[in-house]
Amino acid sequence: MQLVRVHNFTVSSDGYAAGEGQSLERPFGHADPGVLFSWAAATASWSLRTDPGGSRGLDDYLVREFDRNIGAEIMGRNKFGPQRGPWVNDEWQGWWGEEPPFHTPVFVMTHHERPSFTLADTTFHFVSGDPATVLELALAAADGKDVRLGGGANTIRQFLDADLIDTLHVAVAPVELGAGSRLWSSPEELLDRYHCDVVPSHGGVVHHLYWRR
Description:
This protein has six helices and eleven strands. With 213 residues, it is of the alpha/beta class. The protein has a nine-stranded mixed sheet with strand order 5-6-4-3-7-1-8-11-10. Helix 4 (77-80) links the parallel strand 3 and strand 4. It is globular, with a radius of gyration of 17 Å.
């Protein structure tokens, strides 16, 4: 059975996944990604780790699970880049350089389509349509594996509203942002549709693990 998963999605204690004022220089707006993702960056399995060491345990296990059985990713236009409106040109190819970390087809939801392109083993497709339509494309491309819904918060909310997500892992970091792109007002908003385990971990982060009722 293919699942639609949100995994390692990190929000502030007041529910924001990114701050205001996203730009090329500040992909998360006024939020500091080093603070939001410090729980993951401290683990032994963090993909950007350049030195030996790092923690083991629950945080590390969840970081390792990020890629398990994933055959495609869906993301919103704002996660792909800071531009808005029609594409001025096709030069922008994402934040991730010549070797993006996805290793699967990626479907970027946008009102302004552009040609697909491939970097290393990741192909980006730019698609319009409602969540169900985009999900159908991603499930076919995943070839029997799961589809990861990568964000941002507005995209995840669209899929939640359409009741298309099977499991969610949301890490709540001990920092307040006050404004920006918000996933929820309270983690309890999802309890009418999902079971939830809440697990505190190192550094004050709290993991919320949801699965369908």
